[in-house]
Amino acid sequence: MKKGWETKKLEEVCEVLDSKRKPITEKDRISGEYPYYGATGILGYVHEYIFDETLILIGEDGAKWKSGDRTAFIAEGKYWVNNHAHVIRPNRKTVLDNWIIYFLNFSDLSPFITGLTVPKLNQAKMRGIELPIPPFTEQENLISFLDDTFASLEQAKENIQRNLQNAKELFLSELNRIFTSKEEGWIERKLADIALVFGRGKSKHRPRNHESLYGGKYPFIQTGDVRNSNKFITEYSQTYNEVGLAQSKLWQKGTICITIAANIAETGILTFDSCFPDSMIGLVVDPKKAEVNFAYYALQFLKAELQLLGKGSAQDNINMGTFEEQTFPFPSLEMQKKIVLQLDTLSTETKNLENIYQQKLNALEELKKSILQKAFSGELTKTQTEVSA
Predict the structure, then answer these.
(1) DSSP letter at 63?
(2) Can you give the C-alpha Rg of the chain in angstroms?
(3) CA distance 389 to 383
(4) What angle do CA 145, 150, 156 make, to 5 degrees?
(5) For 72-82, what is each residue's pLDDT tens digit?
């Protein structure tokens, strides 16, 4: 511990006001102008208030408590708080609000969490959280330094996220350009017209989740595996045994999988033989009529349109009949191959950019944690903090 610093429990430097909070069921809330706070922030607005001062709220249950999570936040003005957030009033002659906020949101509070079914930071555990307390002036300088530094980091993060989004949109823009500015010779074709095999997956004779079907050598992919793929499906989360295979079907490597329930029109190309349920369509492309990668890109182009066709039910889905009637634009086989080469090249370039930008975002988060670590261990020098202040 740095000279002049103390370590105190939260209850030693704060007054706990939990006894004043009151929950209101959603049906009993009367709409109004005052914020109604829960574990993670404002849940709505009500016509009355309990508190009329600046206080700190800390998630009790229904929150997250890992380092970097918004475990604690400040509430100001007039507002109501339910019983899912602790309410504390710091002794502001000893510790500043934002020093507590920074510390709690930086810290991993998992060791203080109880309950397996419903994780909870109960009041006793919350009271016992220890935090470093620098001299008051040093707290002010550190907070000012952290505010300025994190404002700069947040601006850098926004710029990187904007570049990341631009990289993703670059590919989609070119995809749309190619398929909307079709040259002479393009024709509308149904998927069945270019398929060797076209149909739904199969899992009928037993309930699909029956435990006797699983644990064998045959990959069984699900809609989530397709959704999480990056064009090519290279992983699977479940397998079928001989019993499972007997009531299903093994689709060959190179099959395009298309989801038609829950996650509509997500697509991926199998890199291994696999079974899948009837919530997916399988398309085995005839290489004499179409290029499998072009068919994949055609599905990507019409993805948004296909998703709209499945909206409106309790669980979004699109039936096989609708999919059978949908047409897709196809040029000559030679032109398909040229377009695939062009889109594959652009896809690789944009994904490389996305990886670079994601690495930069990760580096910013690591830098932020490093700065906070130094701030709370007293490693930031007086000169560093006073320059900011």
Answers:
(1) S
(2) 28
(3) 10
(4) 135
(5) 999 999 999 99
